[in-house]
Please model this.
Amino acid sequence: MKHLHIFIYIGALLAVLSLASCSGCSDTKAEEKPKMESVILSRIRQKADLVTTEVRVRKLAIYDSSKHEKFELKDPRTWKYGERKCIVPVDVTIKYGYDLRDLTIDDVKLTDDSTAVVILLPEPKVIDSGYEAKVEEGQVVRMSSGMRDRISHEEVDQLMEQAYRAVMKEDFSEMVERDIEQNAKVVFEAIVKGIGMKNVEVVVHKKDDWKLKTKN
Model:
C-alpha cells in the first residue's frame, strides 16, 4: 500500500508540473503576440505621416504714409492730398493638421469588447503656410499725391510680407478642426479594415477632451 501511495503522489506531482509548464507556454505565446493597439499604431505610422486640411485667407495690405510709414489698415476714404497710399490683396494659404508620427501607444485604445478603436488626437498645428508672391498689377491700388514718388514694386513686396505675418498671428485652427478630424478618421478606418478588423468602429477624440471625459 505504501508503494501505491508513493506512485499516486509522484503521478499527481508530475501532472501539476505538466500543467504549470503548459500554462507558462501559453503565457509566453500570449506575450509574444503583439497587441492590436501596437499593430494599429505601427500601420498608422507606416501609411500616413500627415493629415491636413487648409484654410485660405485674403488680407488687404494697406500702406499709409501719413502714419509714419508704418503698415496699418485704414479706410481709403480718409486719404488726404500729399500722401502715399497703396492697397495690395494678399491670399494666404495655411495648412493645419496632425503629424501622426507623434501618436504613442497610449493614444490608441481598443474597447474591452473589441467593437471599437478609439484614437486620441493632439491639437492641430500649422503644417505649412505661404502666399502667392506675384499679384496682378490691376489688383494693386497706388496713389501718390503732391510730389511724392509712386509706390515701388519693392515696397509692394514688403507690404505683402507684412500682411502675411499679420495673418499668421491669428489662429484659424478651430475653423478647420472638424475637417481635419474627419480626414484623420477616413485614414484610420482604411488602416483598421486593412488589418482585418472590418466590423470595428473607429472613433476619434481630442486628447484633452478624452482626459476630461475619463476623469468624470
About this structure: The first strand starts at residue 50 and ends at 64. Residues 30 and 201 are 25 Å apart (CA to CA). The beta strands are 50-64, 84-99, 108-110, 116-121, 125-131, 141-144, 201-206. Confidence is low (pLDDT under 50) at residues 1-33.
